[in-house]
UniProtKB/TrEMBL annotation:
Residues 18-131 form the GtrA/DPMS transmembrane domain. It is found in: Membrane. This is GtrA family protein. The chain crosses the membrane at residues 7-31, 37-57, 77-98. It is a multi-pass membrane protein. It holds the Pfam family GtrA_DPMS_TM.
Amino acid sequence: MFKKKSVLTFLQAQVAAFLGGITDYGLMILLTEVFKLHFTFSILISGTVGAIINFSINRFWVFKNQSGYSSHINSQLFKFALVVLGSISLKSLGTFMFQKVFQIDYKIGRLITDLFVSYGFNYPLIKNWVFKVNDKQNVIQSN
């Protein structure tokens, strides 16, 4: 059975991911279609902007009571940056593969790739590594 807190955390994280993701996706299209950047470069730039939004919402809303809210921001930022680098790399590669191998428009390929990367890579790492609660923090927060 799922705990209510786990389900709520998951749903909140999806809101954070959605807001970061919609910014990322919209900016990718803008940079590609209007500014004529190759979509892989657009994904790099838009992914960075979306990641800043996602990190901020996760830190200050989703995991604020679980991750040592007032401390460890440098560690969290470093870990989050590593997740973002992996995420952007996977999204760029996946989108490129869908476009080149399967001749799927980059916008559609990106959406397909995002589903796999978001649920199979980003969420587990953000929850269980970037904002992981350790036993010491649990003791401090429960007092």
